[in-house]
Amino acid sequence: MALRNIREYGDEVLRKKSRNVTVFDKRLHTLILDMLETMMNANGVGLAAPQVGILKRVVVIDVGEGPIVLVNPEIVESKGEVIEPEGCLSIPGILGEVPRPSRVKVKAQDKWGKYIEIEGEDLLARALCHEIDHLEGKLFVDKAIKFIEPDSEE
User: Fold this and answer.
1) How far is Cα 46 from Cα 89, in angstroms, rounded to an integer?
2) Residues 125, 92: Cα–Cα separation, whole Å
3) Per annotation, catalytic residue among 131, 136, 149, 154
4) Helix (H, G, I), strand (E, B) or coil at 26
5) Which end of the chain is more exposed for a tag (fewer CB within 10 A), N or C?
6) pLDDT in tens, 30-79
7) Active-site residue flag, 131
8) What is the sign of the dihedral through the CA atoms of 23, 18, 101 and 35?
9) Each residue's pLDDT tens digit, 93-148
């Protein structure tokens, strides 16, 4: 495993659409392990492949219940709406209040290519939406309705 450089706001790769993964091999598994290590090292709850410069539809998430790896994820159902503060490892020091579904269902593949479904609510739903947005070249700042100071209490 290796730490990868997290691309930051202004890097054009963050605005590009990622390609579907079609080959589930050792290179993909290495990317996933590197992404998990990079996310944990940066104290993040999620990381998408474009954030490490790879335009592939791969995300890793850990909201405190163990790592989740999703390949070619897509949201197939969403319910409710919650507006909460959100940040991003690619946009350090900035927080924004972002409306997101309170519950989502995601269809994806695991690292071996097997089809899976995952349902998330609250923080997991937010992380799923945030990371899947990265795969479309969208950032949370595009959806924020208000920006807040990172150390303010609101």
Assistant:
1) 9
2) 21
3) 131
4) helix
5) C
6) 999 999 999 999 999 999 999 999 999 999 999 999 999 999 999 999 99
7) yes
8) positive
9) 999 999 999 999 999 999 999 999 999 999 999 999 999 999 999 999 999 999 99
